Amino acid sequence: MNEFQRVGRLAMRQEGESWVAYYAMPDSMEGAVWLGSIRMTIAQHPERKAMFMELMRETVADLIEEQTGMRPSWGGAQLAPEHERAGSA
Q1: SS3 of 63, please?
Q2: Could you tell me the CA-to-CA distances from 68 to 27, 43, 59 in Å, in that order?
Q3: What is the pLDDT of residue 73?
Q4: Which of 21, 48, 69, 73, CA to CA, is 20 to 30 A from 40?
Q5: Which residues contact 71 (CB under 8 A, 6 or more apart)?
Q6: How far apart are CA 20 and CA 8, in angstroms?
Q7: What pLDDT shows up at residue 82?
Q8: Residues 84, 13: contact at Cβ < 8 Å?
């Protein structure tokens, strides 16, 4: 496997009154694994949002390391693909 191959991603999105984290493949939400969620009122607090995101990053890193034997490095956040940005689900 190429050292920098994308094997999955942390996908965050609003669903109703919750902010939800999924482990998803690079270009699709099909078969995404639900990791956790918090209420949007909590996610509106920058410190709490950062704590939740760090927990979800570590969770995804654990999953990827389990699958590949390599712990991923995190670049900056990226916008979701256009087909995933149609408002809250």
Answers
A1: helix
A2: 19, 31, 14
A3: 79
A4: 73
A5: 61, 64, 65
A6: 16
A7: 66
A8: yes
The radius of gyration of the chain from alpha carbons, rounded to an integer in Å, stands at: 13
Backbone angles phi, psi at 19, to 5 degrees: -105, 120
The amino acid at residue 26 is P
Supply φ then ψ for residue 51, to 5 degrees. -65, -45
Both structure tokens of 14: 């609003």
Write out residues in the chain with pLDDT < 70, as ranges: 1-6, 75-89
Residue 1 has a pLDDT of 45
pTM, entire model? 0.75
Q: Which of 48, 51, 57, 60 is nearest to 76 (CA)?
A: 57
Q: How far apart are CA 49 and CA 51, in angstroms?
A: 5
C-alpha separations of 50 from 1, 46, 56 in Å? 31, 6, 10
Alpha helices in the chain (DSSP H): 40-43, 46-68
Q: Residue 21: its pLDDT value, please?
A: 95
